[in-house]
Amino acid sequence: MCVLGVLAAIGMVACKSRTTEVVVFHASSLSAVLGEAAEAFQKANPQVRIRLEPSGSQVATRKVSELGMRADIVAVADAALIDKMMIPSHATWNAVFATNEIVIVHKDHSKWTDQITAQNWPEVLARAGLRLGRADPDTAPIGYQTLMVWQLAESSGAYGASGAQLAERLKAQCSKDHVVHDEAELLALLESRSIDYAFLFRSTAEDHHLKILALPPEINLSRQDQAERYQSAQVEIRMKQGQGAARVVGAPVTYGLTIPSRAPHPDLAARFAAFLFGEPGRRLFERRGFHPISPAQCRACEGLPAGLRPLVVSTATPAPSTSP
Q1: Which long-range contacts (CB under 8 A, 24 or more apart) does 215-220 make?
Q2: What is the reported pTM?
């Protein structure tokens, strides 16, 4: 074969093997399920590569809204963040596709691991010498949702004297070194035996085979029928750069997804989102400990891709309030 023929053949192979990269900014708690979903999607679409970039959910939205970074999909662990951080300037729709719940997690090395129960956990977690970790509420929803769980437990009256001033006492149990950016870092502290206990999403706890202490629906942020009660918990966080503190009001844990207005590959992003919202994606989410919402619910629907319309229904339910 002549040199020109060889070069042409090489060029043809290069063209055939060229892939398009779809970038997904997402909450750390979605890492495992999105990794599995990306692998399945890529097998069916070999010319597409899904690049996952995990972080705290606030960080994921700020990458787009404040730093101007390009992403094809943004998926967060509090759907309200898309409403507040991205719509209307950086996105036009927001699909709520799954729920979760907050649980207490520990391991064999954790102090009093064999003594803690659903009734005595406030007393055990406040004991001297116990190392408790939490996520920063300014960077990840699990950070402010943990504080909300503590507030709700304190106000429930279900834990007697050990529930008094519980939120402040548990804050005091978290040293500065044990307040981290997102759930992945919090999990790493537990796995490395740097802390004894943490509050994580059930999906993460099940995925990593951690010891789980379930909390009642009145405080675990899992149930829509408890939404009014959850609203009694409030946390102040830094929402947007250059602005003062914003007040986040308690609400059920909901995951939201959008395709930013400046997404480099919106059509491919919509195809991957359709995979997540469809039956194959729902099965993956269920297996990983999430509760998929089917069909997904669109809070803001302007510009929803046509391919997603059979999988998403419009809802008039307002987003949980976040106010300055």
Answers
A1: 215/101, 215/102, 215/103, 215/104, 215/118, 215/149, 215/153, 216/118, 216/158, 218/152, 218/156, 218/158, 219/149, 219/152, 219/153, 219/156, 220/101, 220/102, 220/103, 220/149
A2: 0.89
